[in-house]
Amino acid sequence: KTRFGVMKHLKVLEEANLVVTRRRGREKLHFLNPIPIRMVHDRWIDKYTERQVTALLDLKNRLEESG
Fold first, then answer.
1. Residues forming beta bridges with residue 23, ordered by sequence position
2. Are residues 46 and 66 in the same domain?
3. With CB atoms 3.0 to 4.6 Å apart as the test, which of 8, 13, 24, 36 could cross-link to 19 if both were Cys?
4. Which helix or strand (DSSP H or E) is residue 48 part of?
5. Residues 66, 38: one domain?
6. What mean pLDDT comes out for the span 48-61?
7. Do 39 and 67 have their domain in common?
8. pLDDT number for residue 4
9. How many CB atoms lie within 10 A of CB 60?
């Protein structure tokens, strides 16, 4: 984990618009960009949790019907 390796990864994240940067003197500050991260979450994570929630609701309904 070299400084060069970290800089390379940050550049990839910046090009993907997941990280935004600001210069402060000689420093380059990196911040997470919440909007595209939220879009990735909504597109990928929600897809899988929807299935799990549906399965739990189905189980709940079956248990209530048989009880």
1. 28
2. yes
3. 13
4. helix 46-66
5. yes
6. 89
7. yes
8. 95
9. 10
Question: The tokens of 34 are what?
Answer: 């919440």
Interatomic CA distance for residues 46 and 61, integer angstroms: 22
Q: Which residues pair with 22 in a beta bridge?
A: 29
Whether the model clears a pTM of 0.70, i.e. scores above it, the answer is no
DSSP secondary-structure letter at 52? H
User: Tokens 């000689």 label which residue?
Assistant: 26
Give the pair of three-digit tokens for residue 18: 């997941």
Q: Which residue has the tokens 């420093």?
A: 27
Give the structural domain span for 56.
Answer: 34-67
Task: Quote the mean pLDDT of the chain.
Answer: 91
Instruction: Say whether pLDDT at 53 is over 90.
Output: no
The 10s digit of each residue's pLDDT in 24-52 is 999 999 999 999 999 988 888 877 888 88
